[in-house]
Amino acid sequence: MIEKRLIDLNGINYSYFVAGKGEPLLLFHGFTGTKNTWKPFINYWSDYFRVIAIDLPGHGDTESPESINRYKIESVVEDIHTFLEKLKIDKAHLLGYSMGGRFALSFAILHPVKVHSLILESSSPGLKSAEARYQRVEQDNKLAQMIEDKGIIHFVNYWENIPLFQSQKRLSKEMQAQIRKERLSQNPKGLANSLRGMGTGVQPSWWNKLDELQFPTYIITGELDEKFCKIGQEMIKKIPKGEILTIFDAGHAVHVEKRDKFGKIVLDILLNEKGGYIIND
Fold first, then answer.
1. Paired residues of 17 in beta bridges
2. φ/ψ (deg, to 5) at 3
3. Taking the model in full, what pTM does it have?
4. What are the pLDDT digits (tens) for 169-180?
5. 9: which strand partners?
């Protein structure tokens, strides 16, 4: 049974749902996604874990503040730390996709004592050079302006056709329509502010902090997503307890393109970390 809830975290109303019992598993969606991204996996994970999926600021049913500072990754990290304190959660498993993975990694670096294990799907630690960060900020500001000037439909038409998501064109028409519906449901101001506040260019670069991750860390990438496969391979060299899993014939959104495999792989990882058993695929 899924329980949908609202909670005030440092002045922002966050929306989240909870399902199941056991060790907490926190789920963080990608840009233009929502907590509902994770609903298909409830049947996989909620028999063993307390599954908690949260809408990040500017997305889903969580508020879209006016202040860009409230979208900054460090600010949202403190909101989620408050969330764990309010729910009396001492330690949790974290799973994040893309933007949600950058967020989960940021939380893990800033509050490592709260993390039992970390799973990053198609994520990065940010950009290495100041020049790369500057260029990305410029790019994200243009996208934010596109949303404000031309509207959410124009932006989604553009976004769903960028090279990163080309492999999703192979999905069924029904699944593509579901993804599009979720993107179109967003608050335009929230998406624009998220790009300005939590974009890859403005977040801290964590490359020099990866060796501080002293808990099990798993990187999941899709074989067809060459950019993030390369990033993942670079990351894993720096993470003491790291492992990378590359999924055959999948692109950036592995959880969408290979849903069953993703659900089983994550459960295998979590049960192994819990001292349970491994399910053979």
1. 4, 53
2. -110, 120
3. 0.96
4. 999 999 999 999
5. 12
Side chain identity, residue 55: D
* pLDDT tens track for 257-268: 999 999 999 999
**Domains observed in the chain:** 3-127+204-274 (3.40.50.1820)
Tell me the residue type at 245.
L
d(CA 264, CA 268): 6
Q: What is the pLDDT of residues 63-94, one digit of tens each?
A: 999 999 999 999 999 999 999 999 999 999 99
Please give the structure tokens belonging to residue 121: 């799907």
Check: CB of residue 182 under 8 Å from CB of residue 256: no
Whole-angstrom distance, CA of residue 153 vs CA of residue 181? 10
**In this structure, what are the phi and psi dihedrals at residue 223, rounded to the nearest 5 degrees?**
-55, -35
Closest Cα partner for 81 from 62, 58, 109?
109
Cα–Cα nearest to 27, from 59, 70, 56, 63: 56
List helix spans (H) across the chain: 42-45, 73-86, 99-110, 130-150, 152-159, 173-184, 188-198, 226-236, 254-257, 259-274
> Buried b / exposed e across 109-127, counting CB within 10 Å, b at 16+?
bbeeebbbbbbbbbbbbbb
